[in-house]
């Protein structure tokens, strides 16, 4: 429960922040549109929201499709080669040599390419 100050206004920090953002001199005043302009604004805003919802639905569908393909591929690998499947889904941190963890940079390496390196 928020404490009451001597003037009777709450001292809750949330209330202070809301008041500050609403009544600060640099806060722009709310838009005041005429009836037709408000209708145009609402129509454009609603169309934009519908467009964004359609894009979001399309992205979710694409991710679901990719997930299903990966699940099917893992199931096929499990049925085809159980040993390879076990190695593929193993939860090991050190599956790759440290050489493959090189940080990508904008400049070339000082030593150049290591032609003798072989995958272990």
From TrEMBL:
Keywords: Mitochondrion, Ribonucleoprotein, Ribosomal protein, Transit peptide. This is Large ribosomal subunit protein mL40. It is found in: Mitochondrion. It holds the Pfam family MRP-L28. One of its GO terms (biological process) is mitochondrial translation. Belongs to the mitochondrion-specific ribosomal protein mL40 family. GO terms for cellular component: mitochondrion; ribonucleoprotein complex; ribosome.
